[in-house]
Automatic annotation (TrEMBL):
InterPro entries per UniProt: GcrA
Provenance organism: Methylobacterium symbioticum
Domain of life where this protein originates: Bacteria
Protein name, per record: GcrA cell cycle regulator
């Protein structure tokens, strides 16, 4: 599933910092309001980013820009 990104938002992505490693939690213990981006290999002992998320999203702003690729003009779907 692609996410639409406005051109004005592309410059904002460069200013987002990587979340602190201190926030990381095991995936099985991650709550409803933390980033579920898996750090490293996805195993039964996977570690999530753990940074706070907004609006019920699954990933923090930093990892959302990795997960979703901006659409390009003229791209055929």
């Amino acid at each position: 599933m692609n996410q639409l990104v406005r051109m004005s938002q592309i410059g904002e992505a460069e200013t987002i910092k990587e979340p602190s490693a201190e926030l990381r939690v095991p995936f099985a213990q991650s709550g409803a309001f933390v980033c579920k981006f898996i750090i490293g290999e996805p195993t039964e002992r996977a570690i999530c980013c753990g940074a706070p998320v907004q609006d019920g999203k699954s990933w923090c702003a930093s990892h959302r820009r990795i997960v979703f690729e901006p659409t390009r003009p003229g791209r055929i779907r």
